[in-house]
Amino acid sequence: MPIDPTEAYDPDNIFAKILRGEIPCNKVYEDDHALAFHDINPQADVHILVIPKGAYVSWDDFSAKASNEEIAGFVRAVGHVARDRGLVVRGYRVLANIGRNGGQEVPHLHAHLFGGGPLGPMLAR
Ligand code: 5GP
Description:
It contains four helices and five strands, in the order αβββααβαβ. By secondary structure, the protein is an alpha+beta fold. Guanosine-5'-monophosphate binds at residues 14, 23, 25, 37-41, 97, 103-106.
């Protein structure tokens, strides 16, 4: 079920539980601002999720309320993971779903990082 990105942050969402260590994840990278882990249901050969450590529902919430330091940390983490995983030379895709039209299901901001092969058209037709 897509979420409503204008609702208050739900501290019991699945990624909040992963951040607190209550649910395991297959970790790829972690620093002060971000955590990256493999998606449980990969849609490409490489499908990694990068999440900020702060409590932000969506890209909208994050871009409006996060500090410059948090935003820089998150963006740099996405770039770091892509480089570290060797995705840059062949290319990759970064995607964030926001709300109903975007099909967002987990109400904690996450960037999907796809790679490992040609990814096809940007949107399903
Ligand atoms: P959204 O549709 O919200 O943009 O994407 C949510 C993503 O989170 C989906 O790709 C889904 O497979 C992934 N996901 C949902 N629950 C878990 C989980 O418990 N662990 C991991 N690693 N990924 C999850």
